[in-house]
Amino acid sequence: METTYAHTDLTRAEVDRWPGAAVLEFGANWCGHCQAAQPPLKEAFSSFAGVRHAKVEDGPGRHLGRSYRVKLWPTLIFLKDGVEVAREVRPASAEPIRAGLQRIVS
Hints:
By secondary structure, the chain is an alpha+beta fold. Helices cover 34% and strands 25% of the residues. The protein has a single domain (12-105), classed as Glutaredoxin. It contains four helices and four strands. Strands 2-1-3-4 form a four-stranded mixed β-sheet, with helices on one face. The protein is globular, with a radius of gyration of 12 Å.
């Protein structure tokens, strides 16, 4: 599991080609909601260590977040073979994150 939101040059076309299970997490390191979501994320990902996880720093001028219509942070996009299967916005517990992860690994 990634622990820091990073500026990335990932494009939507690249993400659309990712094979298997992956989670895009949009947010910012200074965001209080994002910080509060980290313990539930850690708990949920502990059972899904093989899932690709990219913490993408979002904000003005960041095209990847806009391509997914991200409006609030953190937003988790659950992908299977590059296709969005589920999303979770501002998770308060590990359970909805686990549910999203389960949908992309089965």
